[in-house]
Amino acid sequence: MIERIRRRAAADGDSGILIGIGDDAAVLEVAPGRALVASTDSLLPGRHFLADSTPADIGHLAAAVNLSDLAAMGARPRWALLALTLPEGDSHWIDGFLDGFLPLCAAHDTRLVGGNLSAGPLNIGVQLLGDIEPGRIARRGRAQAGDVLLVTGSLGDAAAALALAETASADLLARLRRPTPRVEAGQLLAGMATAMIDVSDGLLADLGHLLGPSAGAWIAVEKLPCSAALASSAIDPTRRWRLQLNGGSDYELLLSLPAVAVDTAISACAELGVPLSPIGQVDGSGRIECRLADGNRLEIADAGWDHFQSR
User: Fold this and answer.
1) How many CA atoms lie within 13 A of 266 on its CB side?
2) Does residue 13 have a pLDDT over 80?
3) Residues of the chain with CATH 3.30.1330.10
């Protein structure tokens, strides 16, 4: 569907477009040596946040998912536009939403500069604008054979919170309700990575977007970074691996690096307090394999979040 839109929107001439439809954000050249980075996302109840989420949780999530898109490009976020459709004019709800939205924006030097309010079923739309030096843009679809695959933070907590429902721990629920966008790590890694993407739809689905043409990859399943909260949950290892591979809503950064840059990147991220873990390698196989330490493969039935399929 995205490819259909891209074909219809194609126009003669570049119009200053450095990166258009199909990446985490669009990148537009606005002046020599500086580019505008623009991303937009919408959130709907029941699909992107739980029915019992507080307005502050929803506000935090709305900011986080957009900041994560800019992080995946290596951009510096600057300004936000907010479009709220609300069933009724509830000032307390709006105040609560802003209690979650504005502090996370402020933590990344991002200002809310405009938007729109209208009446109707709850719908939240955010547009985030940032900037970057064109030569430092991180893109998807550029990972090459021989590159090492790495991921920030840990994977699977949000999916585990959904799977465990009312028995999920507070730590797992916090990762679902209030994810941490890796903005500073994205800016640091953009100058090193051959490709980068944020893990929103699930590791395997997003890995497919990260790889270059004809490239494949293998994942060392036991090396997937796991939080203490997930490791101590009631979920058995095989199910945990599947959640880490396919769950989505992690908003960590998945990237490919030349092998010679791995140690430098890990050390640099450690200085930010962000773990960076090698989890596999890009190859020329044209397929993605999930390998176990005993030599067997973990078969995966699906490949992440489908935006047009209810769950």
Assistant:
1) 13
2) no
3) 2-135
Find, among 196, 181, 204, 167, the residue nearest to 274 by Cα: 181
Helix (H, G, I), strand (E, B) or coil at 98: helix
Instruction: Render pLDDT for 119-150 as a digit per residue (tens, 0 to 9).
Output: 999 899 999 999 999 989 999 999 999 999 99
What are phi and psi for residue 207, nearest 5 degrees?
-60, -40
Q: How many residues does the chain have?
A: 311
Task: Tell me the residue ranges of DSSP E strands in 178-215.
Answer: 195-199
The CATH architecture to which 2-135 belongs is: 2-Layer Sandwich (3.30)
Superfamily of the domain at 139-291: PurM-like C-terminal domain (3.90.650.10)
Task: Give the count of beta carbons closer than 10 Å to the beta carbon of residue 174.
Answer: 17
Mind listing the pLDDT tens digit for each residue in 145-197? 999 999 999 999 999 999 998 899 999 999 999 999 999 999 999 999 999 99
Of 32, 37, 65, 68, residue with least CA distance to 131: 37
Q: What is the pTM of this model?
A: 0.89
For CATH 3.90.650.10, list the domain ranges present in the chain.
Answer: 139-291
Mean pLDDT of 42-53: 80
Q: Sign (positive/negative) of CA torsion 93, 94, 96, 101?
A: positive
Q: What is the mean pLDDT of residues 232-247?
A: 96
Other beta carbons less than 10 A from residue 186's beta carbon: 29
